[in-house]
Specification:
Length: about 150
């Protein structure tokens, strides 16, 4: 974890839109509102083009994972925010989507880190004990959220 007063920067790529972001979400001992706003836009519901306020603790989880795994590349985003309407549509299509998904509350990300084995990413996320961790090896991603500590 970075020392208080230093910045925390993440590189992310939204796989659905192709958009990339390399921005600081924490600086000078607190969350950086300009950086958070950029991440909120990147992680929007691309189907509805709807932006929400993502839980800043999500970025802390991803940052800790990046540090723990010594990963300096772009974190690939499979899913960030999903509107209720998008979530219902995906659920109806039988995509294994939870009815009360943390994605609809801006509290979840589905991610992968190229070059890091998915099982290693999952293990690192479980070790953080920072929220929910879902393992989807067939779909090639790990779900992390800021809800209660649990796993599936």
């Amino acid at each position: 974890m970075a020392k208080v007063g230093s910045g925390r920067t993440l590189k992310m790529r939204n796989l659905h839109t192709g958009e990339r972001l390399n921005a600081t979400y924490w600086s000078n001992g607190g969350y950086d509102s300009a950086g958070l706003k950029q991440f909120n836009r990147l992680l929007r519901d691309h189907r509805a083009n709807e932006v929400t306020r993502m839980d800043p603790k999500l970025f802390d989880i991803v940052y800790k994972l990046k540090e723990k795994l010594n990963f300096n590349g772009e974190v690939e985003i499979i899913s960030g925010y999903r509107s209720e309407k998008t979530n219902a549509k995906l659920r109806a299509a039988g995509r294994g989507v939870a009815r009360r998904s943390y994605h609809t509350r801006g509290m979840a990300l589905d991610i992968r880190m190229p070059g890091i084995p998915l099982s290693r990413l999952r293990q690192a996320a479980l070790e953080l004990k920072a929220g929910g961790v879902g393992y989807y090896p067939k779909s090639n991603f790990v779900h992390v959220d800021t809800g209660p500590v649990r796993r599936w």
